[in-house]
Specification:
2 copies of one chain form a homodimer. With 286 residues, chain A is of the alpha+beta class. Chain A has 2 domains: 2-85, PurM-like, N-terminal domain (60s Ribosomal Protein L30, Chain: A), CATH 3.30.1330.10; 98-279, Alpha-Beta Complex (Phosphoribosyl-aminoimidazole Synthetase, Chain A, domain 2), CATH 3.90.650.10. The first copy, chain A, has 10 helices and 9 strands. The first copy, chain A, has a 6-stranded mixed beta sheet with strand order 5-7-4-8-6-9. The first copy, chain A, has a 3-stranded mixed beta sheet with strand order 2-1-3. The radius of gyration of chain A is 19 Å and the shape is globular. The interface between A and B is medium-sized, with 13 and 13 residues.
Chain lengths: 286, 286
């Protein structure tokens, strides 16, 4: 959880193409329902995960705040002071650009399905007609691994390959963030998503539950999701290739061209019958 | 609550002598126990108070995060990028310096006593033998007013009057923060507190409750407390005068010389039988 939070916090900098973080704060609400022993183990592990991830990102935690709370809360702040040449303005998408996504969708579904499996709940029994226990566990591992992965390499390459605009995909889901991105462009554009790369099995699980979480409509919340980058088609192809080449060193660097930028009215849509790309545990497309 | 939080957050900058804040974030946990109507009123007022206080401080809120939580949480982050000439290192106190405090102590006691009064609890019946209802209400108002007051003028004047070291007094109480300050000085010093300026009536209330909150031992937590500044005796006298002269414009600017810096072993103590200074609602010493 600490690692994922830290990666999620840093992602806001990475979405601006900023790869060097000057300073981080860690914010903790420690549950008053934990016993002293539980606190000792859980809080220490969360702080360690946050700290490890910050170190991996080449930064460190200089402060923060811890409070008592009825449930666990974890968050943080990442700050950088930059020259204009060190970040990308997120408003330069133009018709003809394509949209690249750097992590698969479906983290919310994977985490919930896994929880149902552990609890052997009714919903798990429902999902288990389309998903084996092993598939559910793999999806959860896959989700955890990609949530803990930094968008730093994706950010560095984004500057190198002349990104026109970028956001990161988190609580509002792919469509929500694409909408926000479309709305803040200088040009009158719309964004159309044709492909949905989804953690293996999660599209079937969502469909089987009557469209649970809105995953296939692009509205399922993601935690520490990937970057959604608008860039020219040529740059995008090079960008995806370069990002995939880093896979071995930073534990997964798949990227998919998921849509296009057209002249339009500053909004985003998911195309009718989008193509579902099943992404397996190794981050590769099946 | 919004105002107080904002003043408390900014206080960390002011304790470094930094008077210009570049950017603020507001962090909100909205209680899931509030009805829609309550949310509409309470959350709006808290956000408005935070925003008003930020404006008063010459800064503004550029971001933040809101989450759902079992109880209300409010916090924030204040960031400034400074030249070395724009802040004070907090490590230059030397023997012979005196300690100045810029807000009275006792906010925790005042807020609790007021709560007991509202609830007409047993503790209120106990305290009411040494405190009238009117005194309890005045103490609460006085506490609220000073918690919402910015330490900005105190910070500006501190640079002007050559402060040697400073901290702000919050959760660890006067003694806790004095201890931290003494521990981080370049010189081997100790800090001895002789005077305790306390919101009128709160010393009696605390004493009557068997030393409740540790107010007379300097360990009662403060919220958005004053600055504790080490400076030469001459500068301190001028500093207090200058700060008091700003009272009318910024709603209270009392300051008291509360102790001395001596050669010692990097810790702080409250002197035996410290002098209690009763501070009335107008921020003046009675």
């Amino acid at each position: 959880m600490g690692r994922i939070t830290c990666a999620n916090v840093l992602s806001d900098l990475y979405a601006m193409g900023v790869t060097e973080c000057d300073n981080m704060l860690m914010l903790l609400g420690v549950s008053n329902k934990l016993s002293t022993d539980e606190k000792e183990i859980v809080v220490k592990l969360i702080m360690q995960g946050f700290r490890d991830c910050a170190l991996e990102a080449g930064t460190s935690i200089q402060g923060g705040q811890t409070v008592v709370n009825p449930w666990m809360v974890i968050g943080g702040v990442a700050t950088s002071v930059c020259l204009p040449s060190e970040y990308c303005q997120p408003d330069g998408a133009v018709p003809g650009d394509v949209l690249v996504l750097t992590k698969a969708l479906g983290t919310q579904v994977a985490v919930n399905v896994h929880q149902w499996l552990i609890e052997q709940s009714d919903r798990w029994r429902q999902v288990s007609t389309v998903l084996t226990e092993q598939q559910a566990r793999q999806a959860y591992q896959s989700a955890t691994r990609q949530m803990a992965r930094l968008n730093r390499t994706a950010a560095r390459l984004m500057r190198q390959y002349n990104a026109h605009a970028c956001t990161d995909v988190t609580g509002f889901g792919l469509l929500g963030h694409a909408n926000n991105l479309a709305a803040c462009q200088k040009a009158d554009v719309s964004m159309v998503v044709h492909n949905l790369p989804i953690i293996a099995g999660m599209a079937a699980a969502s469909a089987h539950l009557g469209g649970a979480f809105g995953l296939l409509r692009g509205t399922s919340a993601e935690t520490s999701g990937g970057l959604l980058v608008a860039m020219s088609r040529t740059d995008a192809a090079e960008y995806c290739k370069a990002l995939e080449a880093t896979s071995s060193s930073d534990g997964g660097g798949a990227a998919w061209i998921v849509g296009v930028v057209e002249a339009g009215s500053r909004s985003a849509v998911i195309a009718d019958k989008p193509r579902i790309i099943e992404v397996n545990a190794a981050g590769n497309t099946e």
